[in-house]
Write a structure and sequence with these properties.
- With 250 residues, the chain is of the alpha+beta class.
- The chain contains five helices and ten strands.
- It folds into two domains: 97 residues, Alpha-Beta Plaits; 138 residues, Alpha-Beta Plaits (2-Layer Sandwich).
- The longest helix has 13 residues.
């Protein structure tokens, strides 16, 4: 039987999920688990769904990508409709595309962008509370911007991670690190060829600590030089973090 590889572009509210990655016994509580249950039903056998990024519990996405190989030759529109029919309202396949047989959502990607939202008062508006981190401390945006400049380029981000796989490199390239304040919200945007476990949230916590004066402006360089997690700032909560773009072939 002919098989077709589909690229899926997804958005989801991560509040009620234990992250992207399927976990034994908790498949229904993960994004990948929900998608694979549908794909397996369509194929009549266990079917894998590969995601571009393994977002943590509570992290959201406006542009996650995945790929799945299904039997037959359904149109992309039919595939999107079938997944959305069975997905909860907090997860959506926004677009499906027929892609090359060797396309892999994670292995084929060239860069990912995460965006973090910080509310500048102690209590966020009721209807934004699940999607921003209410920090509530005065921030010096110029210090934060200077720290962002130091993050860009090729560096060993070991000190900005909770855990680093022993057999994998902790060197990554951040192509862009930007911070800006608009109204009541600080937005931090990071684009890189990949991220380590909790890297974005630790970077955000470090930037906030620099911005409020708890860490000095040389903190980023010290973390790079030492590779010591304790030199960095706190791990910002998951709720303010969104996967906002995945790029291929650049």
């Amino acid at each position: 039987m002919k098989q077709t590889n589909y690229k899926l572009t997804l958005s989801y509210d991560g509040t009620g999920f234990k992250g992207w990655q399927k976990q034994p016994g908790t498949e229904a509580d993960t994004i990948q688990g929900r998608l694979e249950a549908i794909a397996s039903k369509l194929n009549g056998r266990e079917t894998a769904v590969n995601g571009a990024g393994r977002t943590d519990a509570g992290v959201h996405a406006t542009c996650q990508t995945a790929n799945v190989i299904l039997d037959g030759e359904r149109t992309a529109a039919e595939v999107a409709e079938l997944f959305n029919r069975y997905l909860p309202e907090t997860v959506s396949v926004d677009r499906a595309e027929v892609c090359a047989p060797d396309f892999h959502a994670r292995l084929s990607k060239s860069r990912k962008t995460y965006t973090y939202y910080v509310y500048l008062s102690e209590k966020p508006p009721v209807f934004r509370r699940k999607y921003v981190y209410a920090y509530g401390k005065p921030l010096d945006i110029n210090k934060i911007k200077k720290a962002c400049e130091k993050l860009e380029g090729v560096h060993d981000f070991r000190g900005f991670a909770t855990a680093v796989p022993k057999k994998k490199s902790s060197v990554r390239t951040i192509f862009e690190a930007r911070a800006q304040i608009e109204g009541d919200t600080l937005t931090v945007k990071l684009t890189a060829d990949g991220f380590l476990y909790n890297e974005v949230r630790i970077i955000v916590g470090t930037l906030l600590s620099i911005g409020c004066g708890e860490l000095d402006e040389n903190a980023v360089n010290r973390v790079f030089e030492s590779g010591d997690r304790s030199e960095a700032g706190f791990t910002a909560p998951a709720r303010g973090l969104f996967l906002t773009d995945v790029s291929y072939g650049e």
